[in-house]
Amino acid sequence: MKQKYDAVQEFFKEVMVKDEDFGVIPGTQKPSLYKPGAEKLCELYGFAAIVKSKEEERSFDTGFYRVNFTLQMIHRASGTIIGEGVGECSTNESKYMYRWVSESKVPRHLDKEDLLFEEKNGSNGPTDLTAFRTKIYLASGTPY
């Protein structure tokens, strides 16, 4: 057991890169494992991620997109399922639905009368920010 523990400690010292593979996320106290580090650990232990299922729904008229997927982590050599996770994401989530930008960065084809404005205090003093519903537009200004 001690040899395995020492091997993992050596792996972290020799292979893992601070602030690339792991680090402290702002607002937290303890170090976290980042995706590149998790991928390296999967290689160390011989694990592979397999997409078990993926369902997509999209509307080009509204710009709506939703994906639901199930992922399995398996041991490559034995095929044993180590774990399984389910995830879902959609453009209706608040973090994707609106984008806050400075007024100068609002796309020209959008009618500024329909946008939300909010004044925020930034590092350079008060700044007017604009929210607009995220859509993909063609060069002609029509929704994709």
What's the structural blueprint in terms of helices and strands?
Elements: H1 2-14, E1 22-24, E2 31-33, H2 35-45, E3 47-59, E4 64-75, E5 81-90, H3 94-97, E6 98-102, E7 116-122, E8 125-133
How many E strands? 8
Radius of gyration: 22 Å
Which parts are unreliable, with pLDDT below 50 for 5 consecutive residues or more? 134-144
Outline the biggest β-sheet: 3 strands, antiparallel
| Percent of residues in beta strands | 35-45%
Decide which structural class fits the backbone: alpha+beta
> In sequence order, what are the helices and strands, one letter per element?
HEEHEEEHEEE
Number of helices: 3
Helix content range of the residues, please?
A: 10-25%
- The backbone outline, from C-alpha atoms, is flat
Q: What separation lies between the terminal Cα atoms? A: 57 Å
Indicate the mean pLDDT: 81
Largest sheet strand order = 3-4-5
What does this entry look like structurally?
The protein has 144 residues and is of the alpha+beta class. It is 19% helix and 43% strand. The chain has 3 helices and 8 strands; from the N terminus they run αββαβββαβββ. It has helices at residues 2-14, 35-45, 94-97, and strands at residues 22-24, 31-33, 47-59, 64-75, 81-90, 98-102, 116-122, 125-133. The strands form 3 sheets. The protein has a 3-stranded antiparallel β-sheet. A 3-stranded antiparallel β-sheet has the order 6-8-7. Strands 1-2 form a two-stranded antiparallel ribbon. Strand 7 and strand 8 form a beta hairpin. The longest helix has 13 residues, at 2-14. It is flat, with a radius of gyration of 22 Å.
